[in-house]
Protein 1
Amino acid sequence: MPSKLQPAVAAPDETRLDVVIIEDIREVREGLKMLINGTQGFHCANSFRTMEEALQKIGSLPPDVILTDIGLPGMSGIEGIRILRERFASVPIMALTVYDNDDNVFAALCAGASGYLLKNTPPARLLESLKEVAGGGAPMSPEVARRVVKLFRDFQPPERADYHLTQQETGLLKLLVDGHLYKTAAEKLGVSPNTVSFHLRNIYSKLQVHSKTEAVAKALRERLI
């Protein structure tokens, strides 16, 4: 006869924080996995070496938090954050990286990162930050927080620069800022992906940037749209 004191669902499962890790360095990935699985109230739902693998295998049941590196092989973490944010609007994404320069911080936050930690973050602080970001916070390493504060303090809205973008190029840039991929941008504009690529090359040349992330960051910084 079953005990009346036996709960229908085990208590740890009700409060457990499920985390997905995206990190290409095996030692770091396994270390994070051991830390998370070895701490009560935390569980590593899955870990991936590349963003492409993560996007393919996370599936329709997302975790409570996604913890991702930025400097990944293949698709960058920043580009991946943008796609993950599009797919899982309510799941907080935390960047964990060695990069603390302004461009990477700004690009990651604009892409949709909810927090930004450096890899020298102590384990206890990392676990605390996972809880914080899951609860709606925006944890940052002290060095990163200082950069963000300085970035806003020193920011002077520039005169709107004229890069001589055409109407089609401006429309495409706005779609990229809104998070569209090349294929969905092409559908929105009613053109082929090849036409989108042609306009992108012109945009990069006029803005003097080398990637979609840089173009989006510049468009936001200089209020081009």
Protein 2
Amino acid sequence: MNDVNSNIPVKPKKTGKFKKFGFITLLILVLAAVIYYFICGMTFSEGTRSGILTKVSKKGYLFKTYEGELNVGGINQGEGTILPVTIFKFSTTKKQIYDSLEVYQGRKVVLKYKQVIKNFFWQGDTDYFIEHVSLMK
């Protein structure tokens, strides 16, 4: 009886190939997610901007973000404008900073910011995130 069964070819199991493919795919996805996380969290530049705070808002359907605009100004010389008004758009993830911005709206402020390479969609509309706000004297 063993002679009859020995003539039947035994098919190799394919689970080894699928496991290897699944592991490599999972590894690539995890590596891509880690790289994207570092790109979104990495500071590209940081500094300060000053001007008149013209807009502060809380917006979003599912993820509420804090957004604002700062009128940095332009240069006006008599009859014509040499440099047009520049608007600096920013976001913040901190409620405490948003509360300060609401109080200072319409006044001259100094904003300390950091710029990231790319932000996550739940962080805000811009790549500029306010770290500190102070009133100009």
Protein 3
Amino acid sequence: MSKPFTIVSWNIFQGLHHTANRRAWTPNLRIEDDLEALDADVLVLPEAWRFGQPKAMWAEELAERLDYDLHQWVADRPSRKRETVPWRMVMLTRIPTRPLPPQIMPQFGNFGQRAIVRAELVDSGLTIAAAHLYGIHLVRSTTPRAWMRERRELKVTAANNDIVVGDLNMWGPVVRRDTTPLRSAVRGRTFPAKRPHSQIDHLLVSSQVEVLRSQVLPEMGSDHRAIRANLQALTSGV
């Protein structure tokens, strides 16, 4: 049997410290220290870029500082209006992994393109798909057909990977229905971080994965709480 490993997903809010007042947003100076303290084998980091700094190589700096391998997909432009930094999806790993082709998402109206980053764990053969979906934002933008198309993409992701993790921007019942036969490894409210009322950050696993322990972590400055799980593959890779 393969060794257990720890996976954490945390939307780090473009490197900002979240408050209810946008004018009061300031850089979150503890992010790097908090990520290091998490001591995770796999870090999934939606919004891992510095707000207003399109040339900053923050994900690369994080990988070097924390001694992780970097898996990422970078769009050619920001994903929403009034943003200046190209959208990216980041996964950092410190256990042996093989990069897999990303799952490129459809273009949704005026929203920028996104993709799901994928990697395979060498010792077990488990595949991880790291995602940051538009989800409920599409509904709020009166584009429910696009939301349904994105949900179909999520079904494809679940059918082709052992672990699906990230900021899915969808509520638990919807996610669990769309990712069958995967099952939830973490349950608990993640958003908004200070007084969470909903779970929109998820970790789903296949029958090839045993969940040893899982939790929603305390608020750490972002608008999302992080989720964490200790997992173990039930079969070994080739």
Protein 4
Amino acid sequence: MPGHEAPAFQLVNLEGKKVALSDYKGQGIMINFWASWCNPCVNELPLLNEAYKLSGVQMLAVNVGEDAAAAQKFVERYELQFPIALDPEMKLKSAYKIIGLPLTVLIAPDGTVLERHQGELTDMADIMGLMNRLKEG
């Protein structure tokens, strides 16, 4: 999928507002797909939160298959600061051909997929490296 246009989407965030991929046109964005029952996601999201605070990179964490209450509880527990969108019916999971969680997708400012990272990101240097790729375009 790298080099191809990222599938467009429109989801609802935890505040009940619509979030679309087109909102990020002209800026790179890191999209992380996660669920609260996924242990690697639980390990990874706090690291992503710290990297997000340091990097200045746009990020959207998409909760897959859970309701807003489950996602909100997780966000509060780990004090996550990046935007959270909900994919309760797993339509975006299907559009992005996700077979396992977590999955991190880098989308370039022109809307094409730069990279897909399947599995847990465990190293802050790796996460910052991905975020720096976005800054470079």
